[in-house]
Write a structure and sequence with these properties.
Chain lengths: ~140, ~140, ~140
């Protein structure tokens, strides 16, 4: 069995930002030497997410608007009594989930034609990490 | 270690449709010969989902209505400027997630009494794929 | 390869309740002897969830209110024609997802500073189970 672990660090320019990390996941897979297995891609922070979807700029704007509608910024989250201002970032993270598991077949990410891995930053402008963990043979 | 990969193809009659695929996942597990491990069941398209929940027709209608309320069809998604009309299908996919990981113990899906695996088609009437990938011993 | 499986049982006092189970997941990892791998933590019922987020009481109240807003209790879910009253519990489970996969590196849960595993009960006051399944070397 082979295991390969890599950590990505992001410090986004904007408070919210969605970054296509498919290339980094592919690169980690190549370094792992794994032909068959699975790769876990997981945010290490509780105000960020990881998803698999389309790399289309219009859609990314739609997603951003939609998340703000379903999990809006509000002054009066109870969480803010702890001094934080990012209650909505936690809710957005719960909504899209913080991790994906990607299948690996014949040394490649076994994706359909349009699937791309995204890191979704919901409380950026500071260093945040993502773990890529590959496991297989 | 054993690895087993199978692809399912769906071409649903309706635009949205929820299909119980527990039998196919069990069948893949048997073919794999795996006694202990995990099975990844993952949509290969970005307008479909996979979930684990109840096989109850009333609930499936409730889920459909609820998803349409939280991630409605709209004419004016920015994504539609690319020529698409399925912005809501992407959002529904993000909401329910596109994959599940099922535990395998003693050669069986280690599920509670009511857990069933569903493929959720949000933009059907054309061929769409799901990957089942089992990994274990 | 090592595999380790453990079942937790919860019978919550309240209808909805969120329980930090990070300690139980760590304990299962130690018993497994696994240094590198992954742990699946998955609700075995269809009216419960598992998530990774912050252990902050105010936020937990915010999450509860937010879930009730997005997936409210209603009398008139079709699912209730089957005699059930927990339609909203199913929807809440779909929203937060029923499972997480936790990376294991050097014998420890490879988490960021604030990540904690939570069991989210949406239809409690009766015995409900969670499976912890570790896989690795």
């Amino acid at each position: 069995m082979r295991f390969y672990t890599e950590y990505l660090t992001f410090k986004t320019r904007h408070h919210r930002e969605f970054i296509n990390i498919t290339g980094q996941v592919e690169s980690a897979l190549q370094k792992s030497g794994i032909q068959e297995g699975m790769i876990l891609v997981s945010a290490m922070h509780i105000t960020a997410g990881v998803w698999v979807n389309d790399a289309e700029d219009g859609l990314l704007c739609d997603i951003d608007e939609w998340l703000e509608k379903l999990a809006p910024f509000r002054q009066d989250y109870r969480h803010h009594q702890s001094g934080e201002t990012n209650g909505d970032s936690h809710l957005k993270s719960l909504l899209v989930h913080h991790e994906v598991v990607v299948p690996v077949t014949k040394g490649r990410l076994d994706f359909g034609p349009w699937q791309q891995v995204y890191y979704a930053e919901f409380d950026g402008q500071r260093a945040k990490r993502v773990i890529i963990k590959a496991m297989g043979e």
